[in-house]
Design goal:
The protein is an alpha/beta fold. Helix content is 45%, strand content 21%. It is built from 8 helices and 8 strands. The longest helix is centred in the first third of the chain and has 21 residues.
Length: 175
């Protein structure tokens, strides 16, 4: 009986941990993001600072934001971009000060409001979390594990005035 209870406990812990690992941000995600941003017609180039939107009341959000800062540490050069990052609150994200916003896990409740606030300012919203694409709050969702997967929300891109070159659109799935 004890063995059964321990087995069930380990399975439950494994299930609880897997969703976090499935969306764990890594350096390859950031490099792919830089390349994808380079395909935006009249998009950002050179040194850019990404606003990492975090919910300070959500430990997963804070952890992901801290991980992103650690990964970028001094900048990541990818394509035409040299990416830097700064952790910001949802209120700061709504100002449109950053050309790119990255939504961490745990910011889902604020994403639509932020997206609506920055739509006319040409801000590009991105994440590694599919929920952001489902709600049409992200232009891009990037995932590099287990394989590279880039998804574009046609509705979000249209709302922000973002358009991608045809070569890029052939490499991504549009939703």
């Amino acid at each position: 009986m004890k063995k059964l209870i321990l087995t069930i406990a380990f399975i439950a812990i494994g299930i609880a941990i897997c969703p976090l690992q499935a969306h764990a941000l890594n350096k390859k995600d950031l490099q792919i993001l830089g390349r994808a941003l380079g395909f935006i017609e009249n998009g950002p180039s050179g040194d850019i600072q990404i606003g990492i939107v975090q919910n300070i009341d959500n430990p997963h959000s804070v952890l992901e934001a801290n991980d992103m800062i650690s990964l970028i540490n001094g900048g990541i050069h990818s394509g035409r971009l040299n990416i830097h990052a700064k952790k910001i609150t949802p209120n700061a994200a709504s100002t449109g000060k950053f050309p790119v916003l990255y939504f961490t896990q745990g910011t889902e409740a604020q994403q639509s409001q932020i997206f609506n606030a920055v739509t006319t300012k040409g801000v590009i919203t991105v994440s590694t979390h599919e929920s952001c694409l489902t709600t049409k709050s992200c232009v891009l969702v990037i995932q590099s594990m287990p394989t590279v997967n880039i998804k574009v929300s046609k509705a979000a891109a249209r709302s922000t005035g973002v358009s991608f070159g045809s070569a890029f659109r052939m490499m991504v799935s549009e939703h």
